[in-house]
Amino acid sequence: MEEPATAAVTASAVRAARELRVVFSRLRRRLKETYDTDGLTPTQTSVLSRLSKDGPASASDLAAAERVRPQSMAATLAVLDERGLVLRRPDPGDGRRQLVSLSDPGLAFLEDCRRAGEEWLARSLQAHFTEQERQTVVEALALLDRLSDA
């Protein structure tokens, strides 16, 4: 349900937005600390995640999605290609372009990172929260999920 643009934003909404941003930033940083990026930059790991989520893409599409210059994306993809984490194939719709996709080692790398993060998070939730608190977190996440559709 969308509010009119002219509606006043309540103090509680502003506070919730601020605290949510801070907590998610901290949690994201902490999750990233749980896995070994094997020397990859944040942009390189972001490209791998994007390919996992969205599927094959051209270098120019990836550059636009990551908000970097095409030359920067070319350098990023060169490193990922050299490490065997991505594959390049001709675009069936336009033979002049190439589509980049995750290789099996690239997918395994991402799965290892995700598994390490989820294991840390599960252990932390088990150690520091009661069953009732964990249920509250699950209920709050259902509410927060609605933000992605707003």
UniProtKB/TrEMBL annotation:
Residue ranges of domain HTH marR-type in the record: 13-149
Gene3D superfamilies: 1.10.287.100, Winged helix-like DNA-binding domain superfamily/Winged helix DNA-binding domain (1.10.10.10)
SMART domains on file: HTH_MARR (SM00347)
Organism: Kitasatospora arboriphila
Pfam annotation, one family: MarR
Superkingdom of the source species: Bacteria
Protein name as annotated: MarR family transcriptional regulator
